[in-house]
Amino acid sequence: MTSVDWLWLLHPALAVALVFPLLGAVLQLAIQTRRRRLNPGKAPASAGSEHTALGRWLTSSVVAIQLLAYAVVILTQKPSQLDAMRSSLLLLVLTGSVLALVALWRVRQASYRASFALLCWIGVIGLGMQPEIWRLSDNPLDPAFWQSHFWGGMGLTGLLLFSLAARPEIQHQMRWRRLHLSANALAALIFLAQGITGPRDLLEIPLSWQKATIWSCDFSLRVCPPLAPPG
Description:
mainly alpha
């Protein structure tokens, strides 16, 4: 493996080492928070605040790892296509997404929270839609679209940003709490699917030194051009 291949492994490595442990803790605290609301005294009083705090870190980690993955792929896939204008624009989108996430942590007014969550999500989608980013399909009518690790991650990010933006409403209004519960149940299913589609994609993406040969193959016919004789 080359240094580029190791860089491409940062995304799955951080997901396994950081995101999934956080997910387990958040789900456990969510159960304790629910139990405490139904039966006070049956769960620690700090369960709710800890669930909120770790939920923030879970959302931020997912967004940060996605942005890191897109940046690595764009910079290493076809660097010759990165002219000054496009590089500046992509850097601006990346910076804006990070700043929107930071602002989402700090703002209090509902309209600001919704705006920064949407801006952050749009920035993530904008970077992800670059031609260097590998996707199974962009057509929702294609079954491959619903099996896509990329689009699963986009949907998951949107659900997590929604939960972060709506935190005060979730804490004080029952209908928002029910919506949060439904959104998080869907997010948990997507997390499970991501754990399956991620390793699948790793098997399909060749190492850097293999790409020129493998991408010259005709995948519809499942044939590859003959290799040149050595020497």
